[in-house]
């Protein structure tokens, strides 16, 4: 392996580990919430959650980590993987996504659905309980999508 390849491999591994760390934090926070609530979360449960500062902190962590995971994967993981594979990444992001879909690493429609959730997060969920509940339920329903993507990248690294 050439020096450049080793550098790209290290960047890829660092990006993969960063994404996995965010996903682990999401899972840990949901596991704590599952001790008190069921998902999808009801209107009443979400209202009660907002009154509990400890549980609200878990929601804050979930939202923050989901956003960070999604951003990190799009900005770092995808490009570092393609660089490690010898691909040119000096091109539009849509081309990068198309390349990753072509080699069965992601589904572009699924990725944009995750991106839509991430964009919804930018709004303050405490201003609208319905929006907050929808966001946390969406993250719960799609958290495994992030994990599955990182698992594919991890498996490809080991092959």
Which features would summarize this protein structure in a list?
single chain; 159 residues; mainly alpha; 6 helices; 78% helix
Mind explaining what this structure looks like?
The chain has one domain (3-157). The protein is 78% helix and 0% strand. The chain has helices at 3-33, 43-50, 53-84, 93-102, 108-121, 129-157. α1 runs antiparallel to α3 (53-84), α3 packs antiparallel against α5 (108-121) and α5 (108-121) crosses α6 (129-157). The longest helix has 32 residues, at 53-84.
What's the helix and strand layout?
Layout: H1 3-33, H2 43-50, H3 53-84, H4 93-102, H5 108-121, H6 129-157
Helix pairs in contact: 1-3, 1-6, 3-5, 3-6, 5-6
> Radius of gyration, rounded?
17 Å
Average residue pLDDT? 93
Describe the global form: elongated
N-to-C terminal Cα separation, in Å? 15 Å
Element order: H for helix, E for strand: HHHHHH
Q: Give me the secondary-structure category.
A: mainly alpha
Determine the number of helices (DSSP H or I, runs of at least 4 residues). 6
Major sheet description: none
**Number of domain units:** 1
Strand content: under 5%
Instruction: Please tally the β strands and state the result.
Output: 0
Unreliable sequence segments? none
